[in-house]
Specification:
heterodimer, A: 486 residues, Uridine Diphospho-n-acetylenolpyruvylglucosamine Reductase, domain 2, Uridine Diphospho-n-acetylenolpyruvylglucosamine Reductase, domain 3, Alpha-Beta Plaits, five-stranded antiparallel beta sheet, 19% strand, B: 408 residues, alpha+beta, 3 domains, four-stranded antiparallel beta sheet, 15 helices, 32% helix
């Protein structure tokens, strides 16, 4: 992986910059010692590490503004950080960049149950939003697996999804407004408690911009009343293709379950050993299908799903018999990455494919990994075709790590080839940056860069990520300047 | 404006845009032209319609996805979807009748370009929430794609969604790919009568805050209810507050019972069955209670539900004969006002400054649309960013110059 060459001029001015930051927001907000900074040198993509120039943890929007204004004036790059749970290196620091973390800004500011919105500071964890509204029976819908730790700020930057987005959508469908600090320190509100944008849909562009447009400090998100109840069932099949067909038939019949999760045999084995969820061990593919509603509604829906599955001869059909079993079924699924992580290092891919290609793609993934001498487990959101192949390798073995990266890249190229995309919910970051050429033409990448430049013309925010380093806006068309010059 | 360009394919549109840009010419970009009178008057050299670029290019009912070229009539899309028991979940509103044009003639490209959503938006999300991918041509004459045909995709910037609601000012969409959903097996409506606007909004919010997946909440004062074609409801001769439920029949019956119990303090509702419900919500979708008329103008206000009645009261203090319809449990207010020189813009926008929200002037004479801000005026920073965005897509102002904002 090629990284942007650090600006040695900036690194040489480190002491001056540290005192400038301290002056801007107070020394107690700045982490400059090596031990303190080490906690920020990587994110959940631990293959890459880099000690940042400094770390700042502001407490208010105004402090974020002061830091960015200082960095902007002094040509210092900034890497925004939530909880550092990015799986694609989205929060990976740079040696010449200041990490600005929003984790200390985690308050709930306003809850409007009648309008079903909540205004929060962006450093709040995903799960804490639901916790704040659950006494009234509401929840915040996007539920990435890291929801206990990950921040809303990171969810907004990556447009995070989760297991339940088949029914409730992803982050971009659940946010109504943000307060964002621009790189020059200006504080701007986009959207608000109302459902429509005022002019252009800037929120659509900001959500998923991977920390390259500004730093979001507050957001207004939608909350939803929880269903009266929910219950999962498990359907085991002797082939992945049949499981894929079952998903297509459920959806084709007009039923939209709240979640449809898929696990293959290697994943089932590991998760069952970990969670004792009662997963069948003699099947090639397992679907966890969850429906919501009243007791009666749930029973009717699950019975319909059993009928739909029957012609495909499922080798096992288990409906959760109560809350306890339901919890265990989900525990196994939600702990899957951790459980596999206890056995082996792994690379988690995140491509999305059209569901009709599922059987073939899973076969091809197995062959690709085999050709590199690696094993793979598959756990993913089947309802929306978002794959998560976990390519297992030994991290201390540099050759194996390299082969895992090669296999990962081949898998993602395959996803694009069958009509899908490189990343469904994790983001591009550094991990998939150089694969962007597979999905986009040069023209398309340049168009995206021009839009980024409207927000951050000097390219100081999370630089060197998302866009391949060789893609440049032609010098005779100074994008972004137009925004300022006009 | 005599000449109307009608490219038959994206490459042809691309080549036309390149020539226009090279000659410093601009175009008024339209689908079927049903919303041509929305926005500031476009000062363009000629017009271009996307209606030559039509046809459904992909439909996978089991993946809930369809792709169609931008000029495909919405009616064709809905017929195709209905054939497989599916629908556009966001129930795009049809402004045709309110604008003095025909119902059912808009294109799918325009639905997304104008982010048109109907009553189900409150639960299902807006048009923008269902757009998965776009192929388009920007003002430099580059063909680009964004997004794709899969539900979950965070690869690169979400340009497709960023184009929704841009009213053809950034790029010409040539193909759109969108998420569809199964039609519900059953629909029922509870219509509460005689409520004040305050109580109606309270009721609608309470219904939305229930676990019964209410898929539409709308309030019509008595004067607007009197304009309904739906006989039973018109003859009720009272204000109407309607709550829609959709699901399989047993679920609808169950939820209806629970909601009636929960909302009984608001009085006994009129109950509409499936057929009657479809007629009522179909009428609302065409905005039939606010038909075209030369003596009235039409505003569309987006705000937080809890402030909507106060906002409307403040506006009423400044003008008479205001008719109001509340959708989205109060978060969307349609305001019909008597024609006037500034369409009440200053009073309405002053009220919004106090209570919060945005207003768009949907129908007014061309002279009025020339002189007042049709779309919500932007603060200087958002305006600068908007100009920057326009310039990133369309640096020489080929598409719909001035339609949304005088400077963009």
């Amino acid at each position: 992986m090629e990284f942007l060459a650090p600006d040695h001029g900036v690194i040489a001015r480190r002491e001056l910059i540290l005192s400038g930051l301290a002056e801007a927001v107070g020394a107690d907000r700045v982490i400059s010692d090596e031990d303190g900074r080490r906690a920020y040198e990587t994110d959940a993509l631990t293959a890459y590490k880099c000690m940042p120039l400094a770390v700042v943890l502001p407490r208010t929007t105004e402090e974020v503004s002061a830091v960015l204004r200082y960095c902007h004036a002094n040509g210092v790059k900034v890497v925004a950080r939530g909880a550092g749970t990015s799986l694609c290196g989205g929060a990976l620091p740079a040696a010449d960049a200041v990490v600005v973390g929003v984790s200390k800004m985690n308050r709930v500011l306003d809850i409007d149950f009648a309008g079903r919105t909540v205004r929060v500071e962006s450093g709040i964890t995903n799960l804490a939003i639901s916790a704040a509204v659950s006494p009234e029976g509401f929840f915040y819908a996007p539920d990435p697996s890291s929801q206990l730790a990950c921040t809303l700020a990171g969810n907004l930057a990556m447009n995070s999804g989760g297991a339940h987005c088949l029914k409730y959508g992803v982050t971009t469908n659940n946010v109504l407004g943000v307060r964002m600090v621009m790189m020059d320190g200006e504080i701007v509100d986009f959207g608000g408690p109302q459902l429509d944008p005022e002019g252009y849909d800037f929120l659509a562009l900001i959500v998923g911009s991977e920390g390259q447009f500004g730093i979001i400090t507050e957001a207004t998100v939608r909350i939803i009343k929880s269903a009266e109840g929910a219950r999962p069932m498990m359907l085991g099949f002797d082939s992945a293709a049949k499981a894929g067909m079952c998903v297509a038939r459920i959806i084709g019949s007009g039923i939209i379950p709240v979640a449809i999760e898929f696990m293959d045999r290697p994943a089932i084995k590991v998760c069952e050993a970990f969670a004792k969820a009662g997963y069948p061990l003699d099947v090639e593919a397992l679907l966890i299908v969850e429906v919501e509603g009243s007791e009666e509604e749930i029973s009717e829906r699950l019975a319909q799903i059993v009928e739909i599955a029957r012609p495909l001869n499922p080798s096992s059909v288990t409906v959760a018999d109560g809350d306890e079993q339901a919890a265990r079924i989900w525990k196994g699924r939600k702990a899957a990455f951790g459980a596999i992580g206890r056995l082996s290092d792994y690379l988690c891919m995140d491509g999305t494919i059209p569901l009709s290609a599922l059987g073939q793609v899973l076969d091809d993934i197995t062959s690709i990994c085999k050709s590199h001498g690696l094993k793979v487990a598959n756990i993913f959101h089947a309802g929306d075709g978002n794959l998560h192949p976990l390519i297992m390798y030994e991290a201390n073995d540099r050759d194996a790590a390299h082969r895992a990266e090669l296999a990962g890249a081949e898998i993602l190229k395959l996803c694009v080839k069958v009509g899908g995309c490189l990343t469904g919910e994790h983001g591009v970051g550094v991990e998939k940056r150089d694969l962007m050429h597979v999905q986009f033409t040069e023209t398309e990448l340049v168009l995206q860069l021009r839009i980024k430049a409207v927000f951050d013309p000097l390219d100081l925010l999370n630089a060197g990520k998302v866009f391949p380093l060789d893609v440049k806006v032609a010098p005779d068309e100074p994008a972004g300047d137009a925004a300022h010059a006009a | 404006m005599n000449e109307i360009l009608k490219p038959a394919a994206d490459w042809e549109l691309q080549s036309m845009v390149k020539q226009l840009a090279a000659r410093n010419l601009s175009i008024e970009l339209v689908g079927n032209g049903t919303k041509r009178s929305v926005g500031r008057p476009v000062n363009a050299s000629m017009a271009m319609t996307t209606t030559g670029i039509r046809g459904i290019s992909l439909y996978e009912p089991t993946e809930l996805v369809m792709s169609a070229r931008a000029g495909t009539p919405l009616s064709q899309i809905e017929v195709e979807l209905a054939g497989r028991g599916q629908m556009l979940p966001f129930e795009p509103i049809d402004l045709g009748p309110a604008l003095g044009s025909y119902a059912g003639s808009q294109t799918i490209g325009a639905v997304f370009a104008c982010n048109l959503s109907g009553a189900r938006r409150i639960t299902a999300g807006a048009a923008r929430d269902h757009l998965l991918g776009v192929v388009g041509v920007n003002g430099r004459g580059d063909i680009f794609k964004s997004g794709g045909r899969v539900m979950k995709n965070v690869t690169g910037l979400d340009i497709a969604r960023g184009l929704t609601g841009s009213w053809g000012t950034l790029a010409a969409m040539t193909e759109v790919t969108f998420k569809v959903l199964p039609m519900p097996d059953d629909t029922a409506t509870l219509v509460f009568t005689g409520l004040t606007e305050d109580l109606a909004v309270e009721l609608m919010c309470a219904a939305m805050g229930s676990p019964y997946e209410v898929s539409g909440t709308v309030h019509l004062p008595q004067t607007l209810a009197a304009r309904l074609l739906h006989d039973d409801l018109r003859m009720a001769a009272r204000s109407l507050t309607a709550i829609r439920l959709e699901n399989f029949p047993r679920s609808v019956a169950y939820r209806k019972g629970r909601l009636k119990e929960r909302l009984k303090v608001y009085g006994p509702p009129i109950e509409l069955d499936q057929e009657s419900s479809l007629r009522f919500w179909g009428e609302l979708r065409r905005l039939s209670v606010m038909p075209y008329g030369s003596q009235t103008y039409l505003w569309r206000i987006s705000t937080a539900p809890k402030v909507a009645p106060q906002l409307v009261n403040t506006i009423r203090r400044h003008m008479d004969n205001v008719e109001t319809m509340y959708d989205w449990s109060g978060g969307l207010v349609w305001l019909e006002i008597p024609a006037s020189a500034d369409a009440g813009a200053s009073d309405i926008r002053r009220a919004l400054a106090t209570h919060g929200g945005y207003a768009t002037l949907v129908r007014a004479d061309i002279g009025v649309r020339e002189s007042v801000d049709v779309f919500q005026p932007l603060n200087p920073t958002i305006e600068r960013l908007s100009r920057g965005l326009k310039s990133a897509f369309d640096p020489s102002n080929v598409f719909n110059p001035g339609r949304m904002y005088a400077t963009i």
